[in-house]
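>> received
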Amino acid sequence: MEIQTIKKLEQEALKKSGTDFIRLGLALFFMIGVLTFSFLSNGGVSNNMFLAVAALIGAYMAMNIGANDVANNVGPAVGSKAMTLTTAIIIAAIFEAAGAIIAGGEVVKTIKKGIIDINAFGGNADPFIWAMMAALLAAALWLNFATMMRAPVSTTHSIVGGVMGAGIAAAGFSIVDWGTMAKIAASWVISPVLGGIIAASFLYAIKKSIVFKEDKIAAARTYVPIFVAIMAWAFVTYLTLKGLKKIWPQIVDILNLIPLVSIEMTKKPTFTVALILGFIIALLVYLVVKRRLKTSSTTLENSRASVNTLFTIPLIFSAALLSFAHGANDVANAIGPLAAINDAVVNGGISSKAEIPLWVMAVGALGIALGLALYGPKLIKTVGSEITDLDQIRAFSIAMAASITVIIASQLGLPVSSTHIAIGGVFGVGFLREYLHLAEKDTTIEDDKLTIIDEKKNLHAFKAELKTLEAKDNKIQADYERVVALYKLIAQEEKLIKSTKKHIKKTMKVQYVKRDAIKKIITAWVITVPAAAILAGVLFFMIKGIMI
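>> returned
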């Protein structure tokens, strides 16, 4: 028996190591492919080998973004069983790559968030290139470590820390815009708190309007179309603002061909236009969902599980749209520094903005998709099931928080992190469950205490009667039968009192959010910027030492 168990363990170990080897092989194949392509396609450029190495690091960074950051878009949907892990990876990979290639910016700021002053380099391209390479590699290494530890961290904060640390190493502390850094530090609190409040608010609204009702299906017919329409409004607005900046002029041209539609040509969509487009789509979604529910809800049972199923399709759409918007925006974290290095190598100077060649954009898009497919499942499981238990309603509330928080924050000029928002949303729905349980708990504990008082009265009465009967001298048959019955009753009462006390303790200890997960994630958030900065500074001096 033991030999068979050992053989099974060996087989599992071989299978796991074989899978890990294949993953590593595919990742290395992609990185070497990028290195080779960059070297061969830039053969006429001086320092083309340096650019090729930078491209390899950019590919490594892109894969780490896919492995860590994308989990926030699909994790809740997977954790709620709205879709399988395989389906989520396929959808996210397709839409991340599409977002990066279709809607990714043609021009990015070479210094993320403007946290350092490029004038401090004095027009000298070499230290600037070394700094960007150190920043990119430091951010990628930190993300890799965080993914191994199953800690979802902000890729934006990782690259910000890398740029800050490399900039300080290259030109001193005066190079950093500390006001901007203070805003970024503020986002550590703003992002999760806003995400948590909005997610919890939507979950509570759904519970009050549908789940807590006696006739849940009738309530669902009324309110589910409204909630899904609000979601459509938020996502179209979010996508228009964040994901369509690159192709906005072409979209305006198409929309203006429609009769009675006239949109002023702007470089990027305004908030008002995004809201109007979102409202139009939301109205159409409301009518479609209302009609479908009218026919399909007749076969549903009057239960929470049935209500949950109504949010499955909206969740799949939300995962796809979040992935598209993420690919359009966060691809810059991988290719921004790479584009800066490419511009500096090709043109021999430093620019605050750089054109992104198609091959650089492709490195970011394919790297994110590949990183998600190879190493994303760990973080997807962490976000989806290891912080708090999720169902479709809770996951829907988190998706709502992800889109609405970004819209609110962007209009108020508040710095936020999509990672922190999503995880804050998970925390929010978990803590709301604890709060609602706490409200029920007080009633439950009070009832249990009253039960214990009643049972103790019965126990004392039984014991007193038993004492009287045992002290009786001339017992008859009925007395002996009663003594036996009293012993049984006393044992039952003691067992009931004991179990009720255990129930009180269990009720008081219930926690719907895993505290260990909270500590680990918050610790990772706080140290992301300084950890990436220190690592980037060390790497800058190493690169400088090699090159001089």
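>> The chain has one domain: 2-215+302-439+511-547.
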